[in-house]
Amino acid sequence: MRIGLAGVGRIGAFHAETLRGLDFVDDLVVTDANADAAREVASRLGVRFAPDPASLLAAGVDGFVIAAATPAHAPLLRQGVEAGVPTFCEKPVAATLEETIELAKLAAGSEVPVHVGFQRRFDSGYQRLARAVQGGELGFVHSVRAATHDQAPPHASYIPTSGGLFRDCSVHDFDIIRFVTGREVVSVYATGANRGEPFFSEAGDVDTAAAVLTLDDDTLVVVTATRYNGGGHDVRLEVHGSRGAMAVGLDDSLAMRSAEEGVDFPKGPQHWSFMERFLPAYRAELTAFAEVARGDRPTPCTVEDALQAFRTAEACELSRREGRVVRLEEIETL
Asked: Of 60, 125, 260, 281, which is least surrounded by CB within 10 A?
């Protein structure tokens, strides 16, 4: 297959290397708003360079992968769909709720498949947990705990365009909670704080946040996020039910130490970034996209799925700002 990739920043260059190593990719074409950066990646990986997305799409690609900066996602996604090319887009598909709704309508009205990049759906631990929950292995689920704790914050220049901690980080938790439980969020109460660099406050953001979600079957979910987890990159999901409990991320890489005497778990080493933690999931995700592009399977994560996670993030941000419970029915949808 010939795959086109738009965006060679941190996640884009990572995807380029991943795609280059997958058996189904015979030809990779890369482009970026920074042409010099795209040429450098193309030269280093031995792949082709395109001067712009239009040239890339005109090169006869079988699939289009969008990994550019967030403000570019929506126009690039429209270009891919209008060109009739199966398209993979990193989350979020757009920077605003209104534009996300527009794109969900566009995708729903088109036969061109669009696959949104929520890589946790392709992690073996989350898939096992989803089977346990939805198969009744844990009995009825009464509570869930989700955590996305980055080891260190990104560069200050990233924060003003990130969308905020709930939309940038916790949105992964909101999506995987739907995936694992099969339920929808009906209300949220959220808060946040800043204990680190002042550039978070200056951008109207927080570096640490927490939210309590209520699902449509009255399951209670606690979600936490931070940019400052000095022990390492910590992503976990715990599900507690009437017949048992199960967790993802509870292994020797856990970025936490026990205070109990004689306990040497976890043995380490810790993960230090999401790219390291989820490398197998990213490979599985892009392989799944190839199957979507070939018509071998339906899209495993639609724009509408992305919209529902974004709506929860939007509700959490509103709750944080206004200090109140927000019902999801207050947030616009299709």
From this structure: 260
Closest CA to 51 of 63, 64, 42: 42
Write the pLDDT tens digit of every residue in 182-204: 999 999 999 999 999 999 999 99
* 252 contacts 277 by C-beta, under 8 angstroms: no
pLDDT digits (tens, 9 = 90+) for 58-106: 999 999 999 998 899 999 999 999 999 999 999 999 999 999 999 999 9
pTM (two decimals) = 0.95
Closest by CA position to 162, among listed 226, 89, 70, 74: 70
Q: 212 forms bridges with which residues in the sheet? A: 189, 222
pLDDT on residue 10: 87
**Phi, psi at 135, each rounded to 5°:** -90, -5
Domain annotation for the chain: domains and CATH numbers: 2-112 (3.40.50.720), 123-277+309-330 (3.30.360.10)
